[in-house]
Design goal:
The strands form 2 sheets. The chain has a 3-stranded antiparallel beta sheet with strand order 1-3-2. It has a two-stranded antiparallel ribbon with strand order 4-5. It has 3 domains: 7-83, Arc Repressor Mutant, subunit A (Orthogonal Bundle); 97-165, Arc Repressor Mutant, subunit A, CATH 1.10.10.10; 183-213. The protein starts with 6 loop residues before the first helix and ends with a helix. It is mainly alpha-helical. A hairpin with a 6-residue loop joins strand 2 (68-72) and strand 3. It contains 7 helices and 5 strands. Mean pLDDT is 87; it is low at 178-190.
Length: 213
């Protein structure tokens, strides 16, 4: 199942998924509401400034891919849009609540660590701890039909690796080993050895002091 979605397309789908869950009484969205959601300055990375005509172009592209459906409310001339990206009878993609929450936030904010995903999905789904997030990410990365996420190499000075979605194609900086443990760098190994030597010297000095006393 190849998607190859653009940044604007993932932004539109992510907004529709988010609003369906968080503001169901205002869903589906009009073009104006969808444009506003796409251009939010909070909970969006990168911040975008799309015009209504640009969003409409994206909607038409996604409609051709059958990821969006246009509908009009009773007595209303305003067209509204509903996603068909997943969890519908027309979609091949069926996701759990947690999988959907993670994918939605990755669509809206790009690559993130499990800790960031736990915090940022709190309006979409619930996780008791980071370990649960990691378990869901592992499952999403090991899907037989279409892996949805991939672990990226840990950045220098960071404690956690970030995860990226694969709905826009392969991720350039993805870690091919995925769940492989992070190896200590040569510089890190030297630093550890140096600290061990200093501890040993301190222990010897302490023993000498005890002997004198």
């Amino acid at each position: 199942m190849e998607m190859d979605l653009s940044l604007a397309q993932t932004r539109v789908i992510g907004c529709l998924i988010e609003k369906e869950i968080t503001t169901p009484d205002q869903y589906p969205l009009s073009l104006n509401s969808l444009t506003t959601a796409c251009n939010q300055k909070s909970n969006r990375e990168p911040v975008m400034s799309l015009s209504e005509s640009e969003v409409l172009d994206v909607v038409e592209e996604l409609t051709k891919k059958r990821f969006i459906r246009e509908e009009s409310g009773f007595g209303s001339r305003v067209s509204k849009y509903r996603h068909r990206f997943c969890n519908t009878e027309f979609s091949e993609l069926q996701l759990s609540e947690r999988e959907l929450g993670i994918l939605c936030v990755l669509f809206l904010r790009g690559p993130q660590t499990p800790g960031e995903l736990r915090t940022r999905t709190n309006r979409l789904c619930g996780f008791d701890d980071v370990h649960q997030v990691e378990q869901v990410l592992q499952k999403m990365s090991e899907r037989e039909d279409y892996p949805l996420v991939v672990r990226m190499p840990r950045e220098p000075g960071k404690r956690e690796s970030r995860f990226a979605h694969l709905c826009s194609g392969p991720v350039e900086a993805a870690d091919p080993s995925e769940a492989a443990p992070v190896q200590s760098s040569p510089g890190g190994a030297e630093r550890i050895e140096e600290l061990e030597q200093r501890v040993a010297e301190l222990e010897r000095t302490l023993e000498e002091i005890k002997a004198r006393l």
